[in-house]
Specification:
Blueprint lengths: L9 E2 L11 E4 H4 L7 H12 L11 E4 H8 L5 H14 L3 E7 L5 E7 L1 E5 L11 E6 L4 H4 L6 E4 L10 H12 L6 E4 H8 L2 E3 L5 E4 L4 H19 L2 E9 L10 E11 L22 H6 L4 H8 L5 H10 L2 H16 L7 H9 L7 H51 L3 H10 L10 H5 L2 H14 L1 H23 L5
Antiparallel strand pairs: 1-3, 2-8, 3-7, 4-5, 6-7, 9-13, 10-11, 12-13
Helix pairs in contact: 2-4, 6-8, 12-13, 14-18, 15-17, 17-18
Length: 483
């Protein structure tokens, strides 16, 4: 059997190992402040996974784009290639902020760019020949090379199943504190760590989202809790930490307690339990009959009150086992239907010797069971589809929000331009405040529509998720569900 090619071919001097590559990074980098999109995160962690334990210097690394796309199973369309190229272009501008305390006890912040070299193709072709060349910034050596103390290790393929960069950052924090089982983190620090609050290279705040605990919980922590507990090797619970404020009234949330961090028991393989065999002298379940051995004692124990051993031996000697079971089943179903039988043994003897027996009672029971199962499956599928719809919607809103923030970052005047266009539209109600207007569906539609016209990337994102949401809703309609 051919070995699967590694996700990365290798650096400019030497081919990469074909062994499983893990992400190993100092905890200082885990706790650092940076905000990446999910694709930027995946590619950053892929680069880290290429570092070998013996490496003492960062090397130029060749990254075949097709292999990255194959690893994450998103196809090799021009749009997919563009995702990778755009992610690396953005990584070129990203900085990592590492808070630390120096020898004099002074709190300081180290600001570092990620890469010193990013070499990307100017034309993205749907071809196996497209690749990137990258090299980490040497200032990151203490965090990524020859790391011996306070480090976190995990398999980067876990990112294949996670769709949010916030979730990835929370997962990394959980892996760091897994040995301890819990962590209590200041709320502002937590928001900075996961990228909800972001700074530029001059430490000016350029992004400040989810400032309210309820929003952070609803849009970031709850989805991360669900994804991590369902899809990764660990699970956790959480609760808010409140300010020690004297007096009555609601106390503000000033931290988060990540607790019960442990190996995920749901990720372990489970072995199906062997069914128990049961027998009853008068009323029996045909499923238990089908599980018994063909041995005489098994069959005789089911009918011994009505038929002699000689008769049962004769049945098993002269007749197919399936026919014997079907005759017993028919007799049981007939009696359970309320019919009176004076000579049960005689009926059993007649039924087991009747080939191709049509059991209308079993047919009716089967139809009822099938219908019940169909309804049960339908309810289950509706629940699954509704859950899928909610997940896709939340994923869409998160990515939409991330894209908007990036566009506003690239053009600080963009937000005001959008507001000016909306306020000039006839749908805008000048009797209401801007905040009230922005909550209206018609105004939200104008906001999205303008962004779709102005930016192809925004239009592609919206159309992609609109199609996914429509498909799920159509499937719900087919299942008979009406929203």
């Amino acid at each position: 059997m051919k070995k699967k090619k590694p996700i990365i071919s290798g650096d400019s001097e030497q081919k990469a190992n074909k062994m499983i590559k893990l992400v190993k990074q100092a905890n200082g980098l885990i706790e650092a402040r940076y905000n990446f999109s999910i694709w930027e995160m995946r590619l950053f962690k892929t680069m880290i996974s290429l570092i070998k334990p013996e490496d003492q210097e960062f090397k130029k690394t060749i990254v075949p784009i097709k292999e990255v796309l194959d690893e994450y199973e998103i196809g090799t369309s021009g749009f997919a290639y563009g995702l990778v190229k755009e992610a690396y272009k953005n990584l070129k501008k990203r900085f990592v902020y590492v808070p630390y305390v120096n020898d004099e006890g002074q709190k300081r912040l180290q600001i570092m760019p990620l890469f010193t070299l990013i070499d990307i193709p100017l034309e993205i072709r749907d071809s196996k020949d497209s690749y990137l060349i990258l090299k980490f910034n040497d200032e990151l050596k203490p965090f990524l090379l020859q790391v011996q103390n306070r480090y976190t290790l995990y398999d980067p393929i876990i990112l294949k199943n996670i769709d949010s960069s916030y979730t990835v950052r929370i997962y990394e924090l959980l892996k760091e504190y897994e040995f301890r089982g819990e962590a209590k983190i200041d709320l502002e620090e937590f928001r900075e760590m996961i990228g909800a609050k972001e700074y530029d290279e001059d430490f000016n705040v350029i992004k400040d989202t989810f400032k309210v605990w309820q929003d952070l919980k609803r849009y970031v922590i709850m989805p991360a809790h669900s994804e991590i507990n369902q899809k990764t090797d660990i699970c956790f619970e959480f609760e808010p930490l409140y300010e020690n404020k004297v007096g009555k009234g609601r106390k503000p949330v000033n931290g988060i307690h990540l607790k019960e961090i442990r190996q995920n028991p749901n990720r372990k393989s489970s072995t199906p339990k062997r069914a128990n065999k049961k027998s009853n002298n008068t009323i029996i379940d045909i499923e238990s009959i089908e599980e018994v051995d063909t041995d005489f004692q098994e069959v005789f124990s089911l009918v011994k009150e009505y038929v002699s051993e000689t008769n049962v031996k004769k049945w098993l000697k002269e007749l197919p086992k399936e026919q014997v079971i079907k005759g017993i089943q028919y007799t049981i179903n007939y009696i359970q239907a309320g019919n009176k039988v004076k000579n049960i043994g005689g009926m059993l003897n007649t039924m087991v010797q009747t080939p191709n027996l049509f059991d209308k009672y079993e047919e009716k029971k089967t139809k009822v069971k099938k219908e019940a199962k169909r309804q049960e499956d339908k309810v289950e599928k509706v629940a699954e589809k509704k859950q899928e719809l909610q997940k896709v919607w939340m994923e869409f809103k998160t990515k939409e929000h991330e894209l908007e923030q990036r566009l506003f970052e690239q053009d600080p005047s963009l937000k005001q331009k959008l507001l000016d266009k909306i306020q000039a539209n006839s749908f805008y109600d000048h009797k209401k405040s801007l905040e009230e207007n922005l909550k209206r569906e018609s105004i939200q539609g104008l906001w999205v529509g303008n962004l779709m016209i102005m930016f192809q990337e925004y239009s592609d994102l919206t159309k992609y998720y609109d199609a996914r949401i429509k498909m799920i809703r159509d499937e719900l309609v087919v299942l008979g569900h009406r929203e």
